[in-house]
């Protein structure tokens, strides 16, 4: 038996050598395997994307962001009350919609879910700084993140965000996407949607907001957990002046409205 072991080892080495020689001769084999693996990955990736078509006629009861905030509060031994009230798209003031688009996604009605100019600038800055520094997300991408993803900054999340945004754009109208966004966006701890934010911060319904309140509410969208719309912090006042100026520049408000509201945003 001992005399047969070396021969067995030699036979294995011969087979192994022949196998790799065969692989080297068949240069197409490795690329074919890689193509197969990539195809399998993309099929799996696409099939795991959420079905968004039910959103045409149904409002989501909970979003991924809401669930995340509840879990974070639980981990800290706290209870979080979710405030969120659905309102019709027509109920939301036109000026609030204009302010949000100016601040968050001026090209919303022109692009198909992704603003490639903004995305290019975002990638440039990220590569320059070696981290995901600049957002560059459209309203549709923000909705995709709020509904289905986490707040974690990663390239994998951005990839999924991109494809979900494209699916939202194909399955829903622009107004429906904007309607969903305005009803689920975060405005503070447990506060989601423009109606809940209006009631919580200004003690009135969203259709009763004045110009100053609209601007203040819009200004906190990038920093909902760190700044209140009623704050007098320097950053918020600067952001409010910027939005007010843009509203005037685009002709959404008059010179008189601009002049009357501007002092509210000065120190």
Quick structural overview:
The protein is mainly α and 267 residues long. It contains 12 helices and 3 strands.
CATH topology (level 3) name of the largest domain: Penicillin binding protein transpeptidase fold
Count of individual helical segments: 12
Q: Looking at the structure, what is the overall shape?
A: globular
What is the CATH domain class of the largest domain? Mainly Alpha
Mean pLDDT: 85
Strand content: under 5%
Largest sheet, described in full?
A: 3 strands, mixed
| Secondary structural class | mainly alpha
For the record, the CATH architecture of the largest domain stands as Orthogonal Bundle
The largest beta-sheet arranges its strands as 1-3-2
- The gyration radius over C-alpha positions equals 26 Å
Order of helices and strands: HHHEHHHHHEEHHHH
What is the CATH superfamily label of the largest domain? Biosynthetic peptidoglycan transglycosylase-like
Contiguous runs where pLDDT drops below 50 for at least 5 residues: none
Q: What is the β-strand count?
A: 3
Distance between the termini: 94 Å
> Residue share in helices?
55-70%
Count of distinct structural domains: 2
Walkthrough of the structure:
The protein has about 270 residues and is mostly helical. Helix content is about 60%, strand content about 5%. The chain has helices at about 5-25, 30-45, 65-75, 95-105, 115-130, 140-150, 155-170, 175-185, 195-200, 210-220, 235-250, 255-260, and strands at about 85, 185-190, 190. A hairpin with a 2-residue loop joins strand 2 (about 185-190) and strand 3. Helix 4 (about 95-105) crosses helix 11 and helix 6 (about 140-150) packs across helix 8 (about 175-185).
């Amino acid at each position: 038996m001992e005399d047969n072991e070396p021969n067995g080892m030699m036979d294995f080495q011969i087979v192994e050598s022949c196998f790799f020689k065969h692989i080297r001769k068949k240069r197409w084999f490795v690329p074919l395997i890689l193509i197969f693996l990539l195809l399998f990955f993309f099929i799996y990736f696409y099939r795991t994307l959420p079905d968004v078509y039910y959103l045409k006629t149904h409002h989501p009861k909970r979003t991924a962001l809401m669930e995340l905030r509840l879990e974070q509060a639980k981990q800290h031994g706290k209870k979080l009350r979710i405030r969120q009230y659905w309102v019709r798209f027509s109920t939301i003031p036109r000026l609030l919609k204009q302010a949000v688009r100016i601040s968050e996604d001026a090209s919303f009605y022109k692009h198909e879910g992704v603003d490639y100019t903004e995305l290019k600038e975002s990638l440039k800055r990220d590569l320059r700084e070696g981290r995901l520094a600049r957002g560059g997300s459209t309203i549709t991408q923000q909705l995709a993140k709020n509904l289905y993803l986490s707040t974690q900054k990663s390239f994998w999340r951005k990839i999924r965000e991109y494809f979900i945004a494209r699916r939202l754009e194909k399955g829903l109208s622009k107004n429906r996407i904007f309607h969903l966004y305005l009803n689920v966006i975060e405005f503070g701890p447990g506060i989601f949607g423009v109606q809940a934010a209006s009631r919580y911060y200004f003690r009135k319904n969203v259709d009763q907001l004045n110009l100053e309140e609209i601007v203040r509410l819009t200004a906190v969208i990038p920093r909902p957990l760190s700044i209140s719309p009623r704050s007098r912090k320097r950053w918020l006042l600067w952001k409010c002046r910027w939005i007010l100026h843009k509203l005037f520049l685009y002709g959404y408000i008059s010179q008189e409205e601009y002049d009357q509201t501007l002092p509210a945003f000065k120190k």
